[in-house]
Structure formats: structure tokens, C-alpha cells
Amino acid sequence: ELVQIPTGWVLSGFVVALIAVLVGTFKPHLAKFAAPVYSLAQGVVLGAISRAYSEQYDGIVTQAIGATLGVFVVMLLLYRSRIVRVTDKFRRIIMGALLGLMAFYLVSFVLGMFGSMPSFINDASPMGILFSVFVAGLAAFTLALDFDMIEQGVANKLPAHMEWYCALGLTVTLVWLYLEILRLLAKLREN
What we know:
This protein is mostly helical. Helix content is 80%, strand content 0%. It has 6 helices and no strands. The chain starts with 6 loop residues before the first helix and ends with a helix.
């Protein structure tokens, strides 16, 4: 593993954030409560992870924040200019890739419990870097799904609580993108 991350705060914050996301996802009318809870809990997680990376790699957090902001702006511009169009096919491809990635992480987690996790997930090898580029790219294209959900919500005059639901979804994607960029930058520095 590239970076040692303090587990107590991170695990506690992660569990609270996960519960908040699940509540907000399955009960959209509660998203106005779940989104702030998620943000606070995930702030603890991101703070601990960012500090650990920062101690090992000088300036990496600033680079990751800048890259995340850059990807967000570029994807928003690509979406608004209709260069990236969210069609049913696009949505199916991204959702399929997300489900595949989640299944891969689940299998890797189970294998890791028996000491056999695929090394390229955290490895700075070319395969590890390619994996991180793929996952960061998937997170970037997930932003387009978030933008489309927001646009469709406005067009269809969805209830006000859906604003929180959409904001929660966008925040989750941005956190994921930041963490993947942070991991990718660390791998690039190791290489």
C-alpha cells in the first residue's frame, strides 16, 4: 500500500457517510438531512486521507484538488456544449461500468481478507496506473450523469427535496473523483 491512513477516524467517518448516502438515496425526501451529515462525515475521512498523502507527497493534495476542479469544469463545459450527451446508451454504459467496478472491488475485498488482493489496485505499476486512470475517467463521466439528473429535475419541476438529492449525488461523485485522482497522483510519483 502506498500510504498508511489512520483507520479510526476514517472508518467511523466512512460508516456514517455510507449510512447517510444510503438514507439519502433510498429516501430522497430525507436527502436534506442526509447530505449535510454525509458532507461532515466525509470531511473527516477526506481530511485524514489527505493529511496522510500530504505527509508522504509534498503538494499532492493541492494538485488533486486542482485536478478535481479542472475535471469538474471540463466535464460541465462538455456537457453544456452537448459534446458529451447523456443518452440511454451512455447511461447504460456508465452504469454497467460502475456495477462492474463495484463487483470487482467487492471480490478484491473478499480476496484481500484471505491475503490475495490484486496488487495493481494500489500498485504503482503500469497496470496499476492504467487502472487508476480508468477509475478516475469513470468518475469523470459519472459527473455527466449528475449534471443530466439536475437538468432533468429542473425541466420536470421535481419537488424541492430533489435539489438535496441531486446535490448529494454530485458531492458523492466529486469525493470519489478527488480520491481517485489523489491515488493516481501518488502512483505517478512512485513510478
